[in-house]
Specification:
By secondary structure, the chain is α/β, with parallel strands linked by helices. It has 2 domains: 146 residues, Rossmann fold (3-Layer(aba) Sandwich); 153 residues, NAD(P)-binding Rossmann-like Domain (Rossmann fold). The chain is built from 14 helices and 12 strands. The strands form 2 sheets. The protein has a 7-stranded mixed β-sheet. Strands 1-2-4-3-5 form a 5-stranded mixed β-sheet. Strand 1 and strand 2 form a beta hairpin. Helix 12 crosses helix 13. It is globular and about 55 Å long. The structure holds nicotinamide-adenine-dinucleotide. The site of nicotinamide-adenine-dinucleotide has 23 residues, from helix 1, helix 8 and strand 7. Nicotinamide-adenine-dinucleotide binds next to helix 1, helix 8 and strand 7.
């Protein structure tokens, strides 16, 4: 799934898209050209070449990047992607989106992102470890708890974060847990990080439903994509009484108007490799699932699934973007006219980066928060961000995506002005 997403990103030139979104926000906010000039370029791009001794004795040199887009609000924050299609421009765009995500959710962070051009599935564990340690050594001069804090992204995981942390700590001569987030719990990782994105999506779905007079405990929910984000979103919404009427994965979906049990569906998927053929439910395609009569639709798989072709046929009242970029700009316009509320990705799926922030705070203070504390704080934090964006959209009669971008860009620009950068 993530491969398809990364391929799509490279086809549509993410940097051009990110610049277009920024231009739109800067124009709507009435800022002058210098603001656009500053924000359309990253503050720093570091390219590194990492030699790795392969198991067969040969040496391969892998190219990687760390991009630091803007740190007006705080240290740069963003994941590291290992993928053969990584490009410099893609990493720049992703770092810019991290600036907006951190800003709209009120985190004291700027945006950054990293990437290495590699297919990690072709490496042995030893080669992967050597590459990860080499990458961190190469970018060490520009990262650190007060400078730039990496995290996982496509094909990087808590084990790789543990190697990052260990290598950086060796360079410093003491443990530096706060240099990276989403570490294993045994190595200062935060409780709740694993389900934080899905929990955030579920909280936002509940709040959006409340805003338009739908009681979440009676709401019907459809989830496209039954991986980390999709499953935990379904689970947390089911826990508060919502009816999960359909879910899908890359092979197709299942539909039961009486409601599915998310845990049982996941158990079935683990055993059989897919949700399709789940007993008692009818099968449905990934195209049909988007058009079901439902209160809430959660695209949690790949990008570009809600388009000019199907937007007019969507019957959901609310769309909460668990995935990054599931709705095209043309579809956005149609949905806005139809009165469908679309909560944008930079806000809806920010639960992960919010709990990453909590991990950093715990590491800096030498504290370990309980799972309950993490959940409560996530709820308060993401609810607050949601209401701020909702209010902006209502006041200005604009869609929630535009409102989120305006809130995000405005906060960064205010910080830059106060710091005397513009
Ligand atoms: P994942 O790999 O765990 O799950 C993805 C799911 O989507 C799988 O069940 C897969 O079978 C399914 N899928 C793939 N192609 C599909 C298709 N064409 N139609 C329907 N389903 C399809 O990934 P994830 O971590 O859950 O991420 C999902 C999305 O959420 C991505 O866009 C990701 O960038 C975004 N996201 C994830 C996080 C996080 O913390 N995991 C945070 C922010 C955003």
């Amino acid at each position: 799934m993530k491969i398809i997403m990364v391929k799509l990103l490279s086809i549509i030139d993410p940097y051009k898209m990110a610049v277009k979104q920024l231009r739109n926000a800067v124009e709507l906010l009435g800022y002058d050209k210098s603001v656009f000039e500053i924000l359309s370029k990253p503050q720093r791009v570091l390219e590194v070449n990492i030699p790795v001794r392969m198991d067969d004795g040969s040496v391969i040199v892998f190219t990687g990047y760390r991009v630091q887009h803007n740190n007006a609000l705080g240290p740069y924050k963003g994941g590291v992607r290992y993928h053969p299609n990584v490009t410099r421009n893609e990493v720049i765009a992703l770092s810019m989106w991290m600036t907006w995500k951190c800003s709209v959710t009120g985190l004291p962070y700027g945006g950054g992102k990293g990437g290495v051009i590699v297919d990690p599935r072709r490496l042995s564990i030893r080669e992967l470890e050597e590459l990860s340690r080499g990458y961190i050594r190469a970018i060490a001069p520009i990262i650190g708890p007060e400078k730039d804090i990496p995290a996982p992204d496509v094909y990087t995981d808590p084990q790789i974060m543990a190697w990052f942390m260990d290598e950086f700590s060796k360079l410093k001569g003491y443990n530096v847990p706060a240099v990276v987030t989403a570490k294993p719990e045994e190595l200062w990782g935060s409780k709740g990080r694993i389900y934080s994105t899905g929990l955030g999506v579920a909280i936002i779905a509940r709040e959006a439903a409340r805003k338009i007079g739908i009681d979440i405990s009676n709401a019907r929910v459809v989830v496209q994509g039954y991986g980390n984000v999709g499953f935990f979103t379904a689970k947390f919404l089911h826990d508060v009484g919502a009816k999960i009427i359909a879910v899908s994965d890359s092979k197709g979906g299942v539909y039961d108007p009486k409601g599915l049990d998310p845990e049982k569906v996941m158990e079935f998927k683990r055993k059989t490799g897919s949700v399709i053929k789940y007993p008692g439910a009818s099968t449905i395609t990934n195209e049909e699932i988007l058009l079901l009569e439902t209160d809430i639709l959660v695209p949690a798989a790949i990008e570009g699934v809600i388009t000019l072709d199907n937007a007019a046929s969507i019957k959901a009242k609310i769309i909460v973007e668990g995935a990054n970029g599931p709705t095209t700009p043309e579809a956005d316009k149609i949905l806005f006219k139809k009165g469908v509320k679309v909560v944008p990705d930079i806000l809806a799926n920010a639960g992960g980066v919010i709990v990453s922030y909590f991990e950093w705070v715990q590491n800096l203070q030498g504290h370990v928060w309980s799972e309950e504390e993490v959940k409560e704080r996530l709820e308060r934090h993401i609810e607050h961000a949601f209401h701020r964006v909702w209010l902006k959209a209502e006041r200005d009669s604009i869609d929630l995506r535009t409102a989120a971008y305006l809130v995000a860009v405005e906060r960064v620009v205010k910080a830059m002005k106060l710091r005397g950068w513009i």
